[in-house]
Write a structure and sequence with these properties.
mainly alpha; about 110 residues; about 55% helix; about 0% strand; Cytochrome Bc1 Complex, Chain D, domain 2; 6 helices; globular
Length: about 110
Amino acid sequence: MSISQVVLFSAFVLSLNACSGVDTSDLTNPFAGSSEAAALGAKLYEAQGCVTCHGADGAGSGDFPSIISAAQGDSDGEIFDIIQNGSGAMPAFDMLSDDEIWQIVTHLRTL
């Protein structure tokens, strides 16, 4: 198999995984309840620009949505999925590690 075939096959497999419709609602946050993780998540929330759209308190402003209701109503796994893959106008933050996303989720739980 040539390198280009391996690359194409790998891209195909990754796309299947991304479109698999996996239920993320029951993913478990490994940092749930950790004040240290929440503090790291708060720093990431600011550094990644989340605060620009959603505000420091998560209340949003203008056309930018509040994330407080999502932080209170969605499961940790659902919030993880939205951060990682984006939703609507919100871009994906798939450059973040799983741990970084979980830290942001932990921070959102403090809002």
